[in-house]
Amino acid sequence: MAHGACDSCGNAKEECECEMYCSRCGGTNVQIAMWVRTNTEEVLDDFGSFDETDTKWCEDCEAHVLLFSKDMKRAMRDTGS
Ligand SMILES: [Zn+2]
Ligand SMILES: [Zn+2]
Question: What is the count of structural domains for the chain?
Answer without folding.
Answer: 1
